[in-house]
Design a protein that fits this description.
With 466 residues, the chain is an alpha+beta fold. It contains nine helices and four strands; from the N terminus they run H-H-E-E-H-H-H-H-E-E-H-H-H. The chain has one domain: Outer membrane efflux proteins (OEP). A hairpin with a 5-residue loop joins strand 1 (104-117) and strand 2 (123-139). Keywords: Lipoprotein, Membrane, Palmitate, Signal, Transmembrane, Transmembrane beta strand.
Length: 466
């Protein structure tokens, strides 16, 4: 497997400017405004040390179940099957364009049985057969067919890169869906633990009311706190079910349960982003945009060449068999020149449209590059800032948990009301849920970094030789 070598800046525009007197071609003007210069450093300040981004990056989270799900999605996802079919379609189109460069050979045969009346009134019947082989070849003086072949091959390359970009998107979407599912599991577990405490508190409050040590108002408040926690469970259970179905869809399966680990079992990998300039050679979507620009350049050159005369050579050979007579050898050789004289501007309009498509491809390339840098910067920045937020939330969660414990002791000793105890427990639950969500966000940020940096993508060797 060899690495993709990316040319700095935009590929040179290969437009054909015609001069009919010399029948020559000249490069069309490029689009300097569509070029992009890579930044020198990343704004997020991520250190260079760490694990490099390699294929199979999802295994860096240390969860074999996640690895199995991503690999299953890459093997069975319907969107990837569609992308693979598009590659085959582009391959067939490229083969057809390449075949236009070779001679065409046709074989034909005609049989004629004729019955006629001669001038003497005699009826005669004649059987004649004439097999023939025809050969045709267009002399590609101006490069119309060659550029058409180049455009088709670049289109095939673009479809391959598009398939790889789709595979990276599916892998990242599967990993994110898995992280979200684990986060929902952790939130549901936390809420169930709090609900158990609320149930014990409600039972205790009922006993205190029965014994005359508490009022009905206190009991109503305890029931309200219990219901407030209990109502979260069905919503979380629904979210878990929906997330399981979404994950099963990504992996090409019917709705159902998903085998999984726990959120705390995953590790957060340390990622080295490398230099920003290396991003241009590491993302399949950028390579796809580049190949599309190359295809648009070649298509424009082919459309301009169509304005020039076309030279075609033809040959035919065969024989004529009449009943039992000896065959008569027949052959023809010829050439033709077809020069456009007047077509109402159709060919010129096609060339102008090809030029516009080339400009669109150039700006689409710029958009892909700018989008790649934006995604990478945002993902790296999120990884840094969510780490800081997690540290603050961890301190808040510890403090809220301690406050809840102390409030419970003071309530048992009669120094604070049950409202103070419930309030402390509520803050502890919210801090716990927020910490779980930040853990999920950090894991998803790591996935976004892997995706933004190309996921360890390198084109196959056969793609480079296409």
């Amino acid at each position: 497997m060899r690495r993709h070598r990316f040319r700095a800046g935009l590929p040179a525009a290969v437009g054909l400017g015609l001069t009919l007197a010399a029948c020559a071609t000249a490069p069309a003007p490029s689009l300097p405004g569509a070029a992009v210069e890579a930044p020198a450093t990343w704004r997020a300040g991520i250190p260079e040390s760490g694990a490099t981004v390699e294929a199979g990056w999802w295994s860096a989270f240390g969860d074999p179940r996640l690895t199995a799900l991503v690999e299953q999605a890459l093997a069975t996802n319907a969107d990837l099957a569609i992308a693979e079919a598009r590659v085959r379609e582009a391959g067939a189109s490229a083969a057809g364009a390449r075949a236009a460069l070779t001679p065409s050979v046709d074989i034909g045969a005609g049989v004629q049985d004729q019955r006629r009346l001669t001038d003497l009134g005699i009826v005669t019947e004649t059987l004649a057969a004439q097999p023939e082989v025809r050969i045709g070849y267009e002399v590609d003086l101006w490069g119309r067919l060659r550029n058409g072949d180049a455009a088709a091959r670049a289109g095939l390359q673009a479809s391959r890169h598009g398939r790889d970009a789709a595979a990276l998107s599916v892998a990242a979407a599967t990993a994110r869906a898995y992280m979200t599912l684990l986060s929902l599991d952790a939130q549901l577990e936390s809420v169930r633990d709090i609900l158990e405490n609320r149930s014990d508190a409600l039972a205790l409050m009922q006993r205190r009311v029965d014994a005359g040590y508490a009022s009905q108002l206190d009991l109503a408040r305890a029931r309200a706190e219990h219901s407030n926690v209990a109502q979260r469970i069905p919503a979380l259970e629904l979210a878990v079910s929906r997330q399981e179905n979404a994950l099963r869809l990504l992996t090409g399966g019917l709705p159902g349960p998903v085998e999984r680990s726990r959120l705390q079992d995953l590790r957060l990998p340390v990622i080295a982003p490398g230099l920003p300039s290396s991003l241009l050679a590491r993302r399949p979507d950028i390579a796809q945009a580049e190949s599309q620009l190359v295809a648009a350049d070649a298509a424009f050159a082919s459309a301009r060449a169509a304005l020039l005369p076309q030279v075609r050579l033809t040959a035919a050979a065969g024989g004529l068999f009449v009943e039992r007579l000896d065959p008569i050898s027949l052959w023809t050789l010829g050439s033709s020149v077809l020069a456009p004289l007047f077509d109402g501007g159709r060919r010129e309009a096609q060339a102008d449209a090809a030029d516009a498509r080339r400009e669109q491809a150039a700006w689409a390339y710029r958009r892909a590059v700018l989008g790649a840098f934006s995604e990478a910067e945002s993902a790296l920045d999120a990884l840094v800032r969510l780490g800081a937020q997690r540290a603050r939330l961890s301190d808040q969660r510890d403090a809220a948990a301690e406050a809840a414990v102390r409030a419970g002791r003071l309530y048992d000793a009669g120094y604070v009301s049950h409202l103070d105890q419930f309030d402390a427990q509520r803050h502890s639950l919210e801090a716990d849920l927020a910490l779980i969500q930040v853990k999920e966000a950090r894991l998803n940020a790591a996935i976004a970094v892997y995706q933004a940096l190309g996921g360890g993508w390198t084109p196959d060797a056969d793609q480079g030789s296409a």
